[in-house]
Amino acid sequence: MTPSRVKEAFFSMIGGSTYNRSFLDIFSCSGQIGIEAISRGAEPVIINEKDRIKFSFIKSTIEAFEIKSSVFLQNLTYKNLIKQLGRKKNPLDIIFIDPPYIKKREKINLYDNILDDIEKNSILKGNGIICIQHYKDNILSDESGCFKKVNNKNYGTTALTFYENNFS
After folding, report:
1. Where are the beta strands (DSSP E) in 17-146?
2. Taking the complete model, does pTM exceed 0.90, yes or no?
3. How far apart, in whole angstroms, are the C-alpha atoms of residue 63 and residue 161?
């Protein structure tokens, strides 16, 4: 789950750029990032959580806040979600990626694999941004496919790394 100060830092870093922009939270856990994006004017918002119990919690939260019309809730693996979104041919503005942490001081291939799937399925707009939340000691690529790292900030043991389309 994203600590409050990291969540605030993320939204501060992207500023007002959520208003009327599409938003994807791939590994949602509690749904808090996607719900915060909705509260900041993002639309549509796709929240994905593959764990059934966490998915049910997010669904009940969305129903309690009566925001069903602003959100599309998915219960898929990240690979299946990305493939499904690719078939819809409607790329997104902002993608937030927060898979379960791998607490190692080394290159973690999972992040490049996710970025590769995003590129192959063309689910990010040319001027879109990707943010990966990860363990601060993980080593992420400076470039991955068409994506280039443009920012990295640490908050305790958590880091936020931003990518943009290298060819936009």
Report:
1. 23-25, 45-48, 71-74, 92-97, 124-135, 143-144
2. yes
3. 31
